[in-house]
Amino acid sequence: MRRIAVCPGSFDPITLGHLDIIKRASKLFDKVIVLISANAAKTTSFSFTERLSFIEKATSELALDNVVIDILDGLLADYVRNVGAIAIVKGLRAVSDFEYEFQMALANKKLYEGAETVFLTTSAENMYLSSSVVKQIASFGGDISHFVPGCVLEDIKNRLVKENRNEY
Questions:
Q1: Active site residues
Q2: Which residue intervals of 65-147 are DSSP H helices?
Q3: Residue pLDDT, tens place only, 141-154
Q4: pTM value?
Q5: Distance between CA 35 and CA 73 in Å, rounded?
Q6: Which one is predicted more confidently, 81 or 98?
Q7: CATH architecture observed for domain 4-157
C-alpha cells in the first residue's frame, strides 16, 4: 500500500518555509500531493497556473520525485478521500497557527473519517516566514532572496514590486 499525503495551502507565493515542509513530508510518505487550494478569506497575487509553475520549478530543482502538484477548488476532505491519501500535512509556525489548524483538522475529520492531519513544526529559521511577509517586503522593493526559492525569485519580484514607490 502506498502512503499518500496531501500538503494543502495557497502557496501565494511559495516560500522556503513551504519548501522545507514539502521536502520533509516527501521523506515520510511514498507520495506527496502539494495541493494549491482556494481560500475565500485570502486575496491572491498569483494565478493557480503561476503558483503551480513556481512549485514545479522549486520541487524539480530539489529532485523530489515523489512530489506532484495539483489544484483544488473544493473541499479538502473530499479530495483526500478521492485520492486515497492517509494524511493531510500542515506546517506550524506558532501557537496561533495551531489553533486554526486544529479546528480545520477536526472539521476535515468530521467530513471524512480517514482524514488524519499530521503537523510538522517549522524549522527555526522559518518561524517568521509567510507568503504575506514575502508579499509585503517585496511590495516595497525589499530583498526577498532569503525567503523564496531562487528559481522563482525574479518571477515573484516582477509581480510584487511596486512600479512606482514614490507616489506618496
A1: 18, 42, 93, 131
A2: 76-83, 95-111, 131-139
A3: 899 999 999 999 99
A4: 0.91
A5: 10
A6: 81
A7: 3-Layer(aba) Sandwich (3.40)
